[in-house]
Every structure is written in C-alpha cells, then in structure tokens.
Amino acid sequence: MELTEDQKIHHFLSRVSFGPTAAEIEKVKAKGIPAYLEEQLDPEKLPDRLVEEKLKNLKTLNLSGSELLELYPPQQQALAKGMTTAPDQSPRFVISELQRAKLLRAVYSARQLQEVMVDFWINHFNVFAAKGVDRWLVTEYERDTIRPRALGRFRDLLLATAQSPAMLFYLDNWLSSSPDNALNRPRNGNAAIRKAGINENYARELMELHTLGVDGGYAQKDVGEVARCFTGWTIRQPRGRPEFLFDSRMHDRGTKTVLGTTIASGGGVEDGIKVIDLLAGHPSTARFITTKLVRRFMRDDPPPALVARIADVFRDSGGDLKQTLRAIFAAPEFFAPETVGAKIKKPIEFVASALRAAGGETDGAPPVVRHLIAMGEPLFLSVPPTGFPDVAATWTSPDMLLARINFAIDLTANHIRGTRIQAGEMTALTLAAPEFQVR
Amino acid sequence: MSLTRRLFLKSSGMGLLALGLPPSFLVRAAAEEVKKKNKVLVVVFQRGGMDGLNAVIPFKDRSYYALRPTIAVAEPGSGDERAVDLDGFYGLHPSLTPLKPLFAAGRLAVVHAAGSPDNSRSHFDAQDYMESGTPGMKSVRDGWLNRMLQDGAEGGPLRAAAITFRTPRILSGDAPAMTLTSVEEFRLRDPLLSPALEQRYANVRDPLLRQSAAGLFDAMRTLQAAGASPPSSKEPYPTGRFAASLKQIATLVKSKVGLEIAFTEVDGWDTHVAEGGASGQMANRLKELAEGLAAFARDLGDHIEDVVLLTLSEFGRTARENGNRGTDHGHGNVMLVMGGKVKGGKVYGRWPGLDSDALYEGRDLALTTDFRAVCGEVLSRHLGRTELSKIFPGYRAPSPIGIVA
What we know:
The structure holds 2 protein chains of 2 kinds. Chain A contains 23 helices and 6 strands. Chain A has helices at about 5-15, 20-30, 35-40, 50-55, 65-70, 75-80, 90-110, 110-125, 135-145, 155-160, 165-170, 190-195, 200-210, 220-230, 270-280, 285-295, 305-315, 320-330, 345-360, 365-375, 400-410, 430, 435; strands spanning about 235, 240-245, 255-260, 260-265, 360, 420. In chain A, strands 1-2 form a two-stranded antiparallel sheet. In chain A, a hairpin with a 3-residue loop joins β1 (about 235) and β2. Chain A is globular, with a radius of gyration of 23 Å. The mean pLDDT of chain A is about 95. Chain B has helices spanning about 50-55, 65, 100-105, 125-130, 145-150, 195-200, 205-225, 240-255, 280-300, 370-380, 390, and strands spanning about 15, 40-45, 55, 85, 90, 110-115, 160, 175-180, 260-265, 305-315, 335-340, 345-350, 370. In chain B, α8 packs parallel to α9 (about 280-300). Chain B is globular. The relative contact order of chain B is 0.23.
C-alpha cells in the first residue's frame, strides 16, 4: 500500500520539522523532497529572519557563561554586590529564556532540521540546567557547543561536549584528579577539588549514554581507565571564568588500557582525545547513535537490519551526520505505511506542531512553557543524564494526556497568555484527539 | 557488562482525569471496593542527601561539635537556636519543632545512622539504588514500590499515586501506578469534550494511547463513585509544593478510593555551601518538612491509624563541615517514620559514634541500619506483606527493629 504524494509530503515534514505548515507543504511540492532535504541540511544558507526577530529581545542568549554569572548572580551574591534580586535578574531567568528560545525556534525557525537535531543532541548529551553552575553554562552549551555541530561530524560534537564546562560540571569530571598529584592541587581555593580523587561519573556516562551504549562491550575496568584519561579535564574557575582548562597537575600520567588499546604513559590532554577518537570510531557507537537517530526519525522500535545499513553509512563516512540523515530519509522503510504516524509527538513537538498548523503566535513565555512541564517535558531540566527517552511510554501517562487535552482546550479558547491562534483555525477536539498526538 | 538501568517509565503510568466538574464531584454513591479501609504507605523522598546529623543532632557526642565548628546546632538549653531534646542524647533541629508533639505522642520515630549500604556518593546512582531497592545492583529495572503492586491483588486504578510530574523510579514498573499533581486541578477544563474524546481514544490504533486514556476515564469514574463529599482540609497547610502534595495524599486517603501507596518528593537538601546551622538554608527546608508533616498528620485525623509515612534520602552528609560552611555527600542518615501504628517517641538504631576511627571511609557517619530493614518492617507489620524477598531481592532482613506495632 503506497502513500500518496500528499501523504508522503506530510509524513516527511512531520519528521524533518516540528510540524508541517501550509507554506512548507507548498515548498516541498515545488522543490521535491530531496532538494528540500538538501536545503535543510545546509542551514547556514537558509535565511532565518523571522526567528531572529522573535529572539532579539532575549538578552541572555548571546551572553557567555562568565557574563551570565556576573549579570544574573544567585541571590546571596546579588545581595552582597548590592544588585537587585528581581526575578528577571535571577539564575532562573536564564533558564527560562533558554526554554523560551527553544520553543520559539521550534515554531518559527526556517532551519527546522537543524533545530530538530539540536534538540536531539541536547537530549543525548543531556545536562541538567539547574545543577549548580550549569544554570549559567547551558546557554553557551546549546549555542556554541551543540548548535554549530549538530549536523557535522559526530566525533567533533563528542569532543566539544567533553570539553564543555557545562558537561564537565554536570558529570563532575571537573573534580576528577589523580590521587598521586595530591601535592600539586590547584590553588584556586576550590575545596571540592582539594578533596577529590578520580571521579568516574563522566567516564561511565560517556560510554554508556554518549557512545557505546550499555551493551556496547565495555567493562567496569574500562570505566576506571577512561576516568584516568580524563583527569585534569577541568574548569578554570567555575564561578568566575567557566572555561575548559586542562590542568596537568591533576592528570594521571600513567599507562592506561581502554577497550584493549594501550595509551602510553606521559601523555597529557591527548589521553582524553585518544579516548574520544576510540569511542567515536567504535562499531558499537555507530550502532548506538544510529539506533537513536532511526528512533527519532522513524519509529520507536528500529528494525535491526535498517539500523545495520545506516550504521554502515555512519561508520564509513567517519560519523558524518548529514550523510547518515540522507541515508535515513532515503531508506525505503522511511515511506513505509507502518512508519507513518508511528511516533508519539513529544510535548514540544505537540505544541509546536499545533501552532505551526494553526498559524498561531507565541512569545514562548512561561505561561506556555508551563504546559510543556505539565506534559512531562521541562525543557533543559531532565535530571538524569539519560535525558528523556525517545519512546512513547515517556509521554503517555494519563496525567500527561490530561495536560495535552487541557492545553488543547486552553489554546483554542485563547487562555494562554502570550500565545494565540486565530479563531476557528482549529478545534479543541481536533488538537486533543489521538490523531494529533502522533507524527 | 550487561546492565539495564534508568528505564524510568513504563507504559503503565495511570493518572486521574475528572469530567471537569468542581471538587464536589466526589458525590455519594455506593461502591463496595472503594469503601474498603486500606492501610496506606506514604514515602517521602528527600532528594539531594539530607544532612541527618544536623536534622537530629547527637548533642552528647562531643565529636559532633569538633567536626562542625560553624554549622553545629547548640545542645538543648534556653533560647531558640538550640536543639530540642528528644531523649537526652539526640535533639531535633529547632526548625523541626512542629514534629516534637508527634514524637512525644508516640506517633513519630527516628532511625539514625540509617540508609543504603552502597558507598556511591553520586546523586543519580544513590537515588537509583534506593528507588530500585537494590543497592549496588543496576540491573533491576523496576522500583520497589512497583514490586509491591505486582502482588496480583485487585486494587483499582488508584491503588498507588505519585504526586509528581513524572512517574518516579521507585514506582516504575509493570504494575499501573498513578501520577498526578493535584486532585482538584485534575479535570478537563471543558467537560463537554469528554464523551467525544473518550470515544475517539477508545478506537485508536496505538495501544499505549488507548490504554492510557482508558485508565484515565476509569480512574475518573472511580473517583466519582468514591462517595465522599470533598474531604475539606480544616487544618491549614503551609505554602509550598511539598505541603500541597501531602494535602493531595490526605485527600486521596480520606476519599477512600483504594489508595495503598503514595509517593512525593522534596528537593533542596544538597547543602554543599552555606548550609547554615540552627538557621539558614537547611533550617528553611527542615521547617517546610516539619510543618508539612505536622499539617498532614492533623489533616488525616483518625485516618492516621491507617497510615505510615516514611522518609528516604539517598545518603547523609560528611561528618566534618567543608571549606564552604556546608557538607558534602556522606553515608549514614536519618529516616523519619510517622503514623498511627508507629512505636514513636524513640530514636532507633545503634549510634556508631563520630570519633575518627568510627567514621565511614574516614569521613561520614557510618551505617548501622539498612533502609530496607525499616521499609521492610513497615511493609510486613503495617501492610501485612510477606513477600519481602521479592520486593527487596538479595536482602535478608535482620531481626525486627520494633518500630511498628
């Protein structure tokens, strides 16, 4: 049973964007799917004036971590400095602008596939934005670490996250120090580092969640050895100059063996880089990343044969994400009827697709973001490093279903401050119905 | 290494959906199952690792004062900022004063130097272990509260409720458990949509959506049939999310909808910096905790006979204060156990001491009571459960602590 042209276009746009719009449907009809995909794979060439306009008043988005720390200090510091402690000068405000921008991009950006991939990677390389200093670090994490590399080479993205202050802090690697260097602890007065030994948190999640996957063929010993490689990968001054710093005084310079590969003694920062390369190029990583990509773009239970073919593309191209995505969209399984409507929209997809379909307007402010939270998706605030699992069960408890239904009711009655759709564009029943919950 | 973990959510999360009627929808009706008086277990998870040593102060242990030059709480005496004597050795943090009457009335017990034997000091892992009920084992996918629900008993859709946004790990698993944030708000904001929606979802292809919606409408009908006029809370609760969540639980208990297990959580215990002593950051958290628990106990009234509430926190904190006038992740901690059948008015657990050779790994309060011993005793003596080896696999319960009558 073949899909009609219209069905194909609708299905394609449902996967490559946050939801079809009348305008985009026309564009795909005119260009054809392959040309449209190529355009989406080259986001820099796509003008994005509408979203730039929407984001221009969100001042925090362009600030560095140290600037944010200075301008949006925690309450105690603000009081000590004689600064105002108004809500829009608080660290919480920084997170709320991030959430706002994310929704605005999902609704308004012309570079939809890029934003889909930014969302994918932010979830894959999850950082809980409310953990300590991360409150000021996730802005540049999304902007400077993830977005520029979302459609690049996996290895480059992996390395960038490994060196990002956001990740170094979130998974505690900034504290990880070789016990042998006890006499040479950095003198930045950081009590946490003075007391620390080797911290395995990052090493474990790097392999389990970021690259190989839990069954990817590593042992506890490898976790320890990887942790040794990353000792010294720290942050210069978490609450002052939150930049990546390789501190050789913290580094374990001994010989390490990771997944059977020997890393000679005497190495510095390159020990960790070798691990990055080793993991990025590992067949389990190709399989793990590909599985997640196929899950995002096709269905919750990716067929193993398909994953294997796409994993080959991933590996043979050296982790080239554009090539990998092309292969996914070109796969015959993509337009198979059982792939159509096979994914439950996660909350941001549900809300954005509603606004896109109805030509709605939003300012992305807390009143609408609160609905996302009620639906189970507090943006940037997944506590565990797994992020939000990309499967239907994550989003379909009845409490969350109620939240979607009530969002549909509130939206169509224009009861959400800062968000509205034209009267008659869409009914609550249509929006709340099961058909609209899937893509 | 074959590990499966962090599968937080299963498809079986069930919630409440009301027909959009105001709280007085709880109209009187006859429905025998829901009139059953259940024994209820309420679990409160304090996320972040509460500093048990400052919550229940071992003021007779002089090492406590040596280890905490700036944040120790003064021993009982005159004045406000002092520990409230419990038994001549331990004292309550002054912000926990609202709990003193419960302690004195024998409704509240404390277990000190309790917690998980695993030495992980990672929030994620330690919480994971405490919620899975299998410290040190990452391969267990479901939570121990969910395993309690897997006993095959017919409990109805409101047998377990988490007052959280997402199904917590401790309640995740194959058995259905409800997740809701508020009983009153849990309604369709346009009741007229209900029949059409129920119809659409009943016919849907996707089994998850179909079952989820069906569970929703089921639960709603159960609530309608619950029969009580809305159980109003005559006692005021303090503000804040924690107190609000306890109020929801009290409402469910009093509505007799078949609730057996309730869960809620409270953040803010990870006091690495400027923890404060008798006053300050942690004191504020303790105040919210105590006022919430006290209001909950008052609100339950006679129902407290059927309820046992216990607290969990993934680990305690370092015995020694750190360089930031706070404490770091530790080990042994305090558990509170509150309820009608609790043999309260006592601090349980062997005190290991705070001398340097008594400290766990040279830094933390040691553990002398496994949290599973406390939970297990509540499960067997309060809830009559006998399958503890299934709920806490790999754990052999020691001789009873005697904390539940």
